[in-house]
Amino acid sequence: MSDHPIAPVAAYEPPYYAVVFTSVKTEEGGREGVAGGYGETSERMEELAEKIPGYLGMDYAGSPGGLSITVGYFRDADAVEEWRTNAEHRAAQQRGRAEWYERYTLHVAKVERSHGFERSHGFERGHG
Question: Which of 17, 47, 72, 113 is paired with 53 by a 20 to 30 Å CA distance?
Answer without folding.
Answer: 113
